[in-house]
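Dear support,

We are seeing what looks like truncated structure output for some complexes. This example has two components. We would appreciate it if you could run it in full and send us the complete token output so we can diff it against ours.
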Amino acid sequence: MSAPEQLPDHDHGLLRFLTCGSVDDGKSTLIGRLLFDTKTILVDTLSAIEKTSAKRGMSAVDLSLLTDGLQAEREQGITIDVAYRYFSTGTRKYIIADAPGHEQYTRNMVTAASTANLAIILIDARKGMLTQTRRHSYLASLVGIPHLLVAVNKMDLVDYDQATFERIRADYLAFAAKLGIGDVRFIPLSALNGDMIVDRGERLAWYDGPTLLEILESAPAAHTEQAEDFRFPVQFVCRPQDSSNPELHDYRGFMGRVESGEVAVGDPVTVLPSGARSRIKTIELGGAKLARAIHEQSVTLLLEDEIDISRGDLIVKSSEAAEPVKEIDAIVCWLAEAPLSTARTYLVRHTTREVKAKVARIDYRLDVNTLAQEPASVLTMNDIARVTLKLAQPIVADAYRSNRATGAFIVIDESTNNTVGAGMIA
Amino acid sequence: MSTLTRQTLSHLDWLEAEAIHIMREVAGQCSNPVLLFSGGKDSICMLRLAEKAFRPGRFPFPLMHIDTGHNYREVTDFRDKRAAELGERLIVRSVEDSMARGTVVLKHPGESRNKHQSVTLLEAIEEFGFNACIGGARRDEEKARAKERIMSFRDEFGQWDPKNQRPELWNLYNARSHKGENIRAFPISNWTELDVWQYIQREELELPSIYFAHVRPVVRKGDLLQPVTELTPARPDDKIEDMRVRFRTVGDITCTAPVESDADTVAKILLETASTTITERGATRMDDQTSEASMEQRKKEGYF
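Here is the complete output from our reference environment:
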């Protein structure tokens, strides 16, 4: 590996993507290949997996060993939990969420998908579309991942046959149309041999599209296509009350992250749920004063007027207001061993606000394999259902489809403090 | 004229914004957090992030260092100086105090105290009633860390249960805990070693001198360089060499090895980091190499 002359001083930001598939689809091999071919894997890691591969009697280095994290996973040869991997191409940084594919780990896939902007769905070229392909695709679309990349892997095992690839593509498109998935791309590859991942290889000459890495390099990052409305949940209120510095005596900074849209000094804003109005006086970031704040930026806002604002309040532009609601319809994925009980009170965390909630009714449960809607009176781990929740205090929410940040919530069981559910507001 | 192209954050700005958001969540959700500050490069970045998150206010948490008593003077001096410059409270708790109490018992006087930091950390958590410890661990450091949550729950024995972690979705962090339990929060989980150095360069952060190339007597031990110090003296048959080295991580003297390097500026270190062929811990940590699962084991026992 040669040293770069110099590091780029600007970049194309960061892309978070998700890989879904089972061990048999070669998912770990694909990730290993991406890390290996972008020279992210370093010599000592490689020599460690060489040793392990040899110990297990394999002739070639098993790149899938790179993604085994925990002792139990190595012992059982499976992936239990979501793992995060990193690589960088010099122009872009990538965070891979590697979700296990087993049926019982649907909750891991939803977890991994919640922060991803692109999903790679792996299909074994020999097997074509499976039940789990449908499930992964459905979950990815449910969690609002805007871009899907269907990777038909193990092309080496079907003699790099174009007709096989085309047949799988046609099957998938027929299915995707039913789901309403918009942006789907297809790529044939062999993770084992490294064809069409970073390098094109020589055996897929009939495919004239971009390589996997080229698709990732040009995929839009989340911040370029989010909702336009300005949403700023207040995380923390800064009141220095420093008697030695009179300038700070009346300082009241509202700290948070711009979850969507943008805001500029002078903009009229409304604080929700109170409805109080003011204008942006100052926007600060680490001592610097900014003219505006953009999506995903963590800043401190100061307002023209003295208004009572605390953690859990939402600052919006007065022209882009939202309504506080006390009842919400949502798709919920149940994540806990203990089933959802409609008799119990839970805690809902939505943006920076926590409210008590009860499930008023379970409208239906979804079979994620067939997409059939079934009646249900109880939800167990990995179930996905449409429910109606009654809240003790109002929250200011948007539909998840239009705003991932203000449309999402988690459900917490107060007795254990565990996160037991993930919700997306309809 | 308006443009349709929206401004986006560079990867470093994105990572910074995420880390600030996480720190503010800890401060907003936890009644009594603490930020672990060792004087090492990751925790130096953490202090800058805390400044960006909370100034002009004071930090809503004190700083704390669990000192093995075997740290480089350059680093502990820097630790004290930095805390004083910021005007923030620094708590230091020492493994030696735990040894005096009898809660840490070394197998032999020469045993590394590094893993025993867990005991002292848990004792300090109990002493001050901390319900959240903010640390500078990164997922790219080690494979057990790659599976850890940003807000990682520990039971009343400080144990991490990797198979039973709270699901963590979107940026809705759950830092709730009952009395006696605590949360370990990792704001720079998603940073790599290269990101850390890029941030140090951009923010012009000051570092302890041993991060930069300097001449030091060392002994070659396999692939590692062992510094010759009072704690790690050369054996009679060792060949002592004066080499130009720098530290990639700074920790307990008995288990932290330098690497050969001429990089005496942040810019040069950045170039070396971008073109390195050995992982950060692989080159420098003697304690991680005992077994494939040693970090995981330590974390289950309450280690950071």
